[in-house]
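Quick question about two entries, pasted in order.
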Amino acid sequence: MHIRILCLIYCLVSLTTIFAATDGPGIAITDLRCEMLTDPLGIDVVHPRLSWRLRPGKTGGHRTAYRIMVASTREKLENNEADLWDSGRVQDQNAWYVPYRGKPLHSKQQAWWKVKVWTPEGESPWSDMAYWSMGILNYAEWKSTRWIGMDKAFGWDSINQFSRLSARYLRKEIEVEKEVARARVYIMGLGMYELYINGERIGDQVLAPVPTDYTKNVKYNVYDVTAVLQPGINALGAILGNGRYFTMRQHYKPYKIKTFGFPKMAMQLDIEYTDGTREIIKTDESWKLTADGPIRTNNEYDGEEYDARREMPGWNRAGYDDSRWLNATYVQEPGGFYEAQMTPGMRVMETIDPVAIKRKGDKYILDMGQNMVGWLRIKVSGNAGDQVTLRFSESLGEDGSLYTENLRDARVTDVYTLKGDGEETWHPAFVYHGFRYVEITGFPGDPDLENFKGEVVYDAMETTGTFETSDVTLNRVFENAYWGIRGNYKGMPVDCPQRNERQPWLGDRATGAYGESFVFGNATLYAKWLDDIQKAQTDDGGIPDVAPAFWRYYGDNVTWPATYFTVADMLYSHYGDTRALEAHYPSMKKWMQYMEANYLKEGLMTKDKYGDWCVPPESLELIHSEDPARKTDGVLLATAYYVHLLRLMTKFAGVIDAPQKDLEHYQNLKEKMTTAFQQRFFDAEHNYYDNNTVTANLLPLTFGMVPENREKEVFDNIIRTIEKTNNGHISTGVIGTQFLMRTLTRYGRADLAYKLASNTTYPSWGYMVENRATTIWELWNGNTASPKMNSQNHVMLLGDLLVWYYEDLAGIKSAPGFPGFGKIIMKPAFNSGLDKVSATYNSVRGQIGSHWHKKGRKLEWQVTVPPDASAEVHLPGEEAEKVKINKKKLNSSGTDYRREQGKIIAELPPGTYTIRIDG
């Protein structure tokens, strides 16, 4: 029996409860919605967590107690009959994710729930009702549902390094003889699927399900299909694409690339009738199959080919003649456990119009105006057999043709063959592309912009953050980051969306995930990814550099697997998710022990693989620097980063109440390694580490490894290197850039951090902007480096830039010890050189706002503190009489404040404030 016991944040059913002051006593609830899951069907954890928000009204709002009721039917809950669970009044002002503690929940169980809260202003009425249902909790309940497919290629397919495998079409007709009360589909379609009932597409998801290592776990999706079933004969249909299951490069580097097999499906349709009876329709050999349909090939690297002449009208409706189809065969199951997909999955999240189309010989070049990820929807009319070929790229060569060398051997080509039946509209179903430009060949007539739409595809999630400053370069970099981050969300965070890679590299997101979480509600994506990493861990403790381990890269370095820890810390700090720590602490501890046993020598961590990846090279044509003076020693990187992880493990151990011996081990080892690090790398005469690179000095300074009486001197060496050696430019790679901007600001040089952020000459983020980039490059010199490695849509070089934007420029930071922004440190770097910063962040407690504007010696700052939070607001100067909050002088406003190190620090409860400082 397989039951998932732990429920991470992505399993949470969450309500937004809006409170508004009323004329009478108490607080009124005026709105309710499901927040973290777009459709809370099929939860496969036995203790789902419930959460809700207060929206600010006239009275701020701090919850002091709550009461939850859960019932098995709507009617019972309406009558306050909580037959599953009544929490009673619980005094807890920090309750965010309340685990269900009622009667045991069984497979396919339905549950309705509501909540009321108490605040100092009174008792709320009951919220509206919300709903969730359980998925299939036991493997045995799938046992009679067999996997079906066809484990072979067909005559028109080819299986080689550049495989061409057509989509498989499956269908079955069933008879519904009674009135349907409820019907649910539970489906696993690998590698990807589209599901139809009676010709109607089920759900608005695309590229489903999210990818996993299918030998470890397989995600199933659940859909309510009550409304589409009809009395009499009904047709069930599915199309199976290849996805990551039938790997993009077959029989190529088998020592590196993991393969799984041919597409397959397992599905059950659970029908409950109004008379109380039940019927389950399962996948078996009675289903019919063909691969001779319109999708002739689909490969994530190479594209999709669709021949509309081979369409099968009515194939997914009742009465279709499938006598020429084959009987599906039973096939081997993938091997991984079956789990409900607790992430929303991918959707078409935006549609954009192209900005230009130009003829080039017998071809056309379409410009989307933006490097995007998804596909092109085309509208075309012509003769049967006319063939439109679409080839994709991120940029153009000097002659105006597509630049595709940097895509390596990815063919990135879609082909649509017309059926010749009036206006035809098409987009691919099972591939995506990273592109700005499209080369169009064979289009009948003269195409114009109206024939094309770009559809942006990524995981369905809220955009949680906005950010704008008085500096146009910073704003453009933010916009580029926004487009790059969301384009690389594909059921997991991938490194790039365009070339023959698209892998979930850990090192790209070590700090990046933290910055991304200000912009996107990415908790479900990253919680799922932690599971992927955990499942990829070897029995002896090793963690790969890519997870899921589609590529077998177990490099045993420190800096890439460290992402496992930093992402868990992000989920805890930003979302208050303690279960991420509880679930993954044992695996983290196992890896720490593995590294200590194998690579810790005389207090130093001796294994590194990538160095400070992608430092700006000395020549614009190089990918990696060859200058030893620019490189940072691998043992230094590994040791310093491992000390950082020891500090994180100490924090995690405290949160989850781990054994005291764990804490003692981490502390003792941290001290031992710090001492060894000092002895090996510190030049006491010149106050720098090793060869004095910015990264070599930055890591020990950031991680608290520098003796207190030498911190200023080490920092001065960082400044000297940036300002004099590098002429005010960045010189760090993936590792150093994770800590650069915050550390400069922390030690009083926010102005230099701003200079690095706003530079427009090489190397800098602004240099990318100046060279027409609309996403973030893989290399600082991505416009000139060898095409072997110069993706124009990577996010790893963002480092801590977005964190710096929000925490240090806007002043929106979750205080240590107050996860989920229970307390907000609002300490903007007013001395950075900017005149204006405006930012919002929709946290788990509600929206946080920080909008400040300086003019001369005057400062105006609008601050929004959400309910259930407080803010520590840092104001420049010590003269309280010059400060007004909501038009009242600070020293007579009743606001608690103190003076500290030349600043005024005010404590603000929930609310919106206008702060003015004159002179």
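Here is the second entry:
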Amino acid sequence: MSLTIAARFARRELRGGLRGFRIFLACLTLGVAAIAGVGSIRAGIEAGLAREGAALLGGDAEIELTYRAATPEERAWMDTTAERVSEVIDFRSMVAVGEERGLTQVKAVDSAYPLVGTVALDPAMPLADALAGDGTLPGAVMERVLIDRMGLTVGDTFRLGTQDFRLMAALTREPDSGAAGFGLGPRTIVASPALANSGLLVAGSLYETKYRLDLPAELDLLSAKAAAEETFANKGMRWRDARNGAPGIARFVDRLGAFLVLVGLSGLAVGGVGVSAAVRAYLAGKTHVIATLRSLGAERRVIFLTYFLQIGALALLGIALGLALGGGVPVLLAPLLTAALPVPAVFALYPEPLAEAAVYGILTALIFTLWPLARTGEVKAATLFRDAMAGARALPPLPFVLATAALVAALVGVAVLFSGTVTLTLWTAGGLTGALAVLALAALALRRLSRRFRRAARGRPALRWAIAAIGGTRDEATPVVLSLGLGLAVLAAVGQIDGNLRRAISGNLPDIAPSYFFVDIQRDQMPGFLDRVENDPAVSKVEYAPMLRGVVARINDRPATEVAGDHWVVRGDRGITYADAQPANTRIVAGEWWPLGYDGPPQISFAREEAEEIGLSLGDTITLNILGRDITGTITSFREVDFSTAGMGFVLAVNENALKGAPHTFIATVYAEPQAEAAILRDLANQFPNITAIRVRDAIDQVSIMLNGIASATSWGAAATLLTGFLVLIGAAAAGEQARSYEAAILKTLGATRARILSSFALRAALLGAGAGLVALAAGITGGWAVSHFVMETEFAVIWPSALGIVAGGVLATLLAGLGFARRSLATRPARTLRSRE
């Protein structure tokens, strides 16, 4: 019965239109739209990767081997299983043009490449014709950026190792580029037979052989994978198929999308502040209606349900608008997004991200509307007739407090479930909760400080009026500090994290990082290599070590992925070194290094931090697959490995006698003065053409490009949060317009000029904005420090240009919102305003 009556009252209330709920709808719509939009774009990319899986991979399936080609028996199995097989060899090398050297990622292909898709060249020609060359030299194609960097034109000659090639065309599209992963150099494609005399693919060289398989339509991919794993058991094989043709891209998109959803939740929290403020303002305007209902005998339950149903219906409208906006805009902008994204995407209306956004919106609306609705039921009718909500107590009844806490827990649980990142989600939830608590306390402190400083403002009427208004009973400070402060805090944290990450990569590393990494140094080349670099006065330090690459296949005789999950150490192959004596720069933190000349069962020294993350202990066994051979060793020590210096570091080190007989090469790092780098590179490249030099600055630039994309996406999410905060400001300014009109009327009647009243309004807005900005800055810097220190594990320093911009932005935002409504307050005539309040 109560529900029926409440529904009838709510329906009649809704006939009055949306007056007072525009900001409510805008905040909820924008927050839900941001989350739905991010989820829809992520779903579109995932659908594109799934649809184009075979094209991205270069076939229905791929078998990858490290350091070696398939044996005749293995190749026979592939030829029997697949309708067509293409062999691709992928490695890094140096392009030589005269005295110039440039890093490139070489792809050596056979006549069957590509199995799926087409290679686009400029000038247009079949790839086979381009790789055949001009009759005197084998041909090659390069990406345009490398052609321009090396000063080449089509028809010119360049060298890879000891083999000359003729540049036949520019590579404009590579169908399987999505499967290549992160590369330090632009692509060069050559025919595999042309490398026979290059000296690049020798025993121990760092290269990967990939076999793309065109499987029969009736062959199930899971069955094919099981058969491959049985055939290649314990031979270091890695299998990928078209179900996830570009796992690195898919993983990156998934994690970035989850992070952006959490940023979107920050915006929804800001919107929740606006939702709460709008509900309070609306209920304050309904004081006489509620009082009348109470006087006529309406129960608290009926009144609560009346406005709960009304606000619930409006919340559902706002969520529906947000879903339409967040789901529809990616579809409408599909051509632009598809052209801008470096990966395939299929944009459509995907139910899952829309359902996630709807759940977030419903829970947020409930959390931020329950308290004002509950408090209304506790206000007596006589108090309601006097003043809006002044008689309500600070906290609602205990059941509502418990219900709100349960809803908050549900929201966090849903965020953990949907994002799949427990730690990051909990950090975000804790940060938002802490920021809201700090901002609420800051608003209270700002009000109390303003009351104390009234006397200090004597003789300055405009300032005194502004301070009095901030500390007055209408509480203008809380909605402004909460809404704007939370938006600015998110933006400040993002700015500090981004700035410190960029500084760590591009600012600090050159002071401590090596000039070059040199790889593929043959054992017999090491004396000549060291003679050149160690006797150069411009070289301050040289480090070198033998290196093999292997796969962590098993841990304690269990599949490594069962023990370590998706940890990066067991994902793909890892660099492995060996040593007899403990290196001088190695610090053992647990266990002991093996004795000199040790020749017993293999022993392993593991990096401490990674061991803790995986859950390893001294005495555990690890099976490494190197060149198709399994080597099982026991962990006898843990050591500190610092990867942050961009120097030499290995997760796994093995005793010398366990690995020295395997084909391998050496790597070295050279620390030299910048002016000597070119001469070192030139001399070593001329003496040892097979050696590949990786300039650390080039690697840093590649990482910076990736960071730019992440920072841009994150900044857009933070900007949406800030926009929501600005909408809340507008709502607060609009809600206080009537009070400011009355205030202006009183001041005009007492002789104040329009200019002085306007100055008072401007000072009030500026003080509130500065307060919100300063508190947001403190919260943002704290959040940035926490993420940098605990998550990124980098040093932290305040990025002051970004920090000062946040404070200035807070002042400007409140000025714009406050002055936008102040003009109408000043324009009203005092007599009309005062008469209406009688």
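Reply: Residues 481 and 771 are 7 Å apart (CA to CA). The chain has 27 helices and 21 strands. Hope that helps.
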